[in-house]
Amino acid sequence: MILDNIENLEYYELGGLFPRAIEFLRDNDLMSLPPCKIRLLGDDLVVNVQDFDGKEEKDCRMEAHRDYADIQIVLGGGEETMGWKATDDCKNVLIPYNEEKDVEFYEDKADTMVKVHSGQAAVFFPTDAHQPGIAPGMHYRKIIVKVKVR
């Protein structure tokens, strides 16, 4: 997992499709985009722009992906808490892996909780189970970039 300001993502030597994702984030006014799904490279690199309503922790599930990494970005003055746990340490499957959606959900609780402030990005790899969306009563802009890594 990486947590940093959006503008610092270019300093990480991430290969594959990450440079293209970071270029998009750098070159676009993310607050002016309408809520939408942008396919930068077919299904390999997808940007989801959402006006998001935060949830209670109990309503947010741990999830992990096998083929994609998530770049989760909070914007517009919001602050979101996201849980983290190593995927290998998640033992209690709630919803088995769905290959089409590339997601598996767990009953496990996060080992670590991090606050992601407006203007920051959390990058979750397939080795990172995560519990996004914890921000009760908050409404904010959220960008989720799906980056195919396998």
Structure description:
With 150 residues, the protein is mainly beta. The chain has a single domain (2-148), classed as Jelly Rolls (Sandwich), CATH 2.60.120. It is built from 1 helix and 12 strands. It has one helix spanning 18-27, and strands spanning 2-5, 36-41, 45-53, 62-64, 68-75, 79-86, 93-98, 103-106, 112-117, 120-124, 128-134, 139-148. The strands form 3 sheets. A 6-stranded antiparallel sheet has the order 1-10-5-12-3-2, with no helix packed on it. Strand 7 (93-98) and strand 8 form a beta hairpin. The chain is globular and about 40 Å long. The model has no long low-confidence stretch (mean pLDDT 97).
How would you summarize what this structure contains?
With 150 residues, the chain is mainly beta. 7% of the residues lie in helices and 51% in strands. The protein has a 6-stranded antiparallel sheet with strand order 1-10-5-12-3-2, with no helix packed on it.
Give the helix/strand layout:
Blueprint: E1 2-5, H1 18-27, E2 36-41, E3 45-53, E4 62-64, E5 68-75, E6 79-86, E7 93-98, E8 103-106, E9 112-117, E10 120-124, E11 128-134, E12 139-148
Antiparallel strand pairs: 1-10, 2-3, 3-12, 4-8, 5-10, 5-12, 6-9, 6-11, 7-8
